[in-house]
């Protein structure tokens, strides 16, 4: 490996996605900015995205991390659609899915079983989320 | 065959087979300079050369992303497939970036035949333009009819990137400055097509007039002899003109008005881009451009490879800081150090060239 290769190395890429009808993206902005400041490359989806659009963006951008922010309570319908879409493009295995927002405790387990790596509720310290990403980002060749 | 090589050839096969995942992964390898990426790009080379590559640049807020979105949509409506690479700046301190242009690709959501990819200015030493042109090759080999590179026109790096395009389109916002600003802006010299976007705003006509005047000023006086205006010139006329005045066949940049938010002027812009592509082919400039690009690419690669080799030599001599310490202690000087480091390389070159 040349010096240039060593220096340029690998960069963690994240898609921060707002999916469904909820219209509040302050949290998504805050996390995007925190990830940027942590040295990640962040792609922000914008509001009101359909699961298909999120899948398209995650596949094309080849992100390591997909952070889904949901406040509307629709996570039980939206997240499975995204998981299925990623599977369709063989992208599920090496995309780490995080869910942030208002998620009742009962639903957490279900999301984790579905393949979501972690659920971060309100008040999670930003440093904790960043640390989680750094430690658990899927290893690629 | 190493593991990296074998996954590389699988990836290339899948990319050529039309798998989006493979295309996305190849671009990631190119961006990361992952082991085996060079081999991948080498394999792709033979499959490139069919896409029209269009560079779109302009100051922040000129409406590039919105226009690119509408361009992509219009190309799709006409039956073409589209690849877009949007380059955004990254923080020089953390390397982090927010790549925000995807938000504006609203007309093309759910359409996988528009492949949109965000890239950040990660690299150094011309690394970004190399990575961008390699990513363009991936999209070209994948079979995209049109590849659009979008970048903020702020500095040298961006100019380099845009030069990897066949046709360069510069966006100007009405009221973006007086005619002195227009004279100052070096980026205006690289445009084949100028777009006054937000043409419904006050001052749009003045901006158009200023642009046209500026283009007129930079023109070779002989260019006025070309009565064919911007359209394709017939062969006879071309041959005649070429004999006594080679510059007379130069492309005369066009100014197009658009309102990207409503899609107005986009068809006209596409026609102008097509006219430029046609001119490139008919005049043979397309080969000149490609030759120039490959020459620059080879230089770039040779430079960075040589630099990497010399970095190894520096490491072997105890690292750059140790060498700097020697200079600081007045034991030696920078010229002598450079001479010692490069000397063995020079000897090899002398031997190779039989001097």
TrEMBL record, chain A:
Pfam families with a match to the protein in the record: B12-binding
Gene Ontology terms, MF aspect: cobalamin binding; isomerase activity; metal ion binding
Entry-linked PROSITE patterns: B12_BINDING
Limits of the B12-binding domain: 11-140
UniProt keyword terms in alphabetical order: Cobalamin, Cobalt, Isomerase, Metal-binding
Family matches, as SUPFAM superfamilies: Cobalamin (vitamin B12)-binding domain
InterPro entries: Acid_CoA_mut_C, Cobalamin-bd, Cobalamin-bd_sf
Cofactor(s) required for function per UniProt: adenosylcob(III)alamin
Protein family membership: Belongs to the methylamine corrinoid protein family.
Name listed for the protein in its UniProt record: Cobalamin B12-binding domain-containing protein
From TrEMBL, chain B:
Pfam family, one: MeaB
A GO MF label: hydrolase activity
InterPro entries: GTPase/Isobutyryl-CoA_mutase, GTPase_ArgK, P-loop_NTPase
UniProt entry keywords in alphabetical sequence: Chaperone, GTP-binding, Hydrolase, Nucleotide-binding
Hydrolase recorded as keyword: yes
UniProt superkingdom: Archaea
Family: Belongs to the SIMIBI class G3E GTPase family. ArgK/MeaB subfamily.
Name of the protein: Methylmalonyl Co-A mutase-associated GTPase MeaB
Organism name: Halobaculum lipolyticum
Name of the gene: meaB
């Amino acid at each position: 490996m040349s010096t240039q290769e060593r220096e340029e190395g690998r960069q963690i890429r994240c898609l921060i996605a707002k999916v469904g009808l909820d219209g509040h993206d302050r949290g998504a902005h805050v996390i995007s900015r925190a990830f940027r400041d942590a040295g990640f490359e962040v792609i922000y989806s914008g509001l009101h995205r359909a699961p298909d659009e999120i899948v398209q963006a995650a596949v094309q951008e080849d992100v390591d991390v997909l952070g889904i922010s949901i406040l509307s309570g629709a996570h039980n319908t939206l997240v499975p659609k995204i998981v299925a879409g990623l599977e369709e493009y063989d992208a599920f295995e090496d995309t780490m899915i995080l869910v942030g927002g208002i998620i009742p405790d009962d639903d957490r387990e279900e999301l984790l079983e579905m393949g979501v790596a972690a659920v971060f509720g309100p008040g999670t310290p930003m440093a904790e989320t960043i640390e989680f990403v750094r430690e658990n980002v899927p290893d690629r060749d | 065959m190493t593991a990296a090589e074998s996954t590389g050839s699988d990836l290339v096969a899948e990319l050529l087979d039309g798998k989006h995942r493979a295309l996305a992964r190849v671009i990631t390898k190119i961006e990361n300079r992952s082991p085996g990426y060079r081999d991948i790009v080498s394999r792709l080379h033979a499959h490139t050369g069919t896409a029209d590559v269009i560079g779109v640049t302009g100051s922040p807020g000129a409406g590039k992303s919105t226009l690119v979105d509408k361009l992509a949509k219009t190309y799709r409506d006409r039956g073409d497939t589209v690849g877009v690479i949007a380059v955004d700046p990254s923080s020089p301190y953390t390397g982090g970036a927010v790549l925000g242009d995807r938000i504006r690709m609203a007309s093309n959501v759910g359409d996988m035949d528009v492949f949109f990819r965000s890239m950040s200015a990660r690299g150094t030493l011309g690394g970004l333009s190399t990575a961008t042109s390699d990513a363009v090759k991936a999209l070209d080999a994948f079979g995209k009819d049109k590849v659009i590179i979008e970048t903020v026109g702020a500095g040298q790096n961006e100019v380099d990137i845009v030069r990897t395009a066949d046709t360069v389109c510069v966006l100007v916002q009405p009221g973006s400055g007086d005619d002195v600003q227009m004279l100052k802006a070096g980026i205006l010299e690289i445009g084949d097509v100028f777009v006054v976007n937000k043409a419904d705003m006050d001052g749009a006509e003045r901006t158009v007039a200023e642009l046209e005047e500026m283009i007129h000023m930079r023109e070779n006086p002989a260019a006025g002899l070309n009565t064919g205006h911007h359209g394709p010139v017939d062969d006879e006329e071309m041959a005649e003109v070429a004999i006594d005045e080679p510059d007379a066949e130069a492309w005369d940049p066009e100014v197009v008005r658009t309102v990207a938010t409503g899609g107005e002027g986009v068809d006209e812009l596409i026609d102008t881009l097509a006219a430029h592509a046609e001119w490139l082919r008919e005049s043979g400039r397309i080969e000149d451009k490609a030759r120039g690009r490959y020459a620059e690419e080879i230089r770039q690669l040779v430079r960075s490879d040589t630099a990497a080799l010399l970095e190894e030599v520096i490491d072997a001599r105890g690292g750059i800081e140790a060498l700097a310490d020697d200079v600081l202690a007045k034991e030696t000087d920078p010229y002598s150090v450079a001479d010692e480091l490069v000397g063995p390389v020079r000897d090899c070159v002398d031997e190779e060239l039989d001097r």
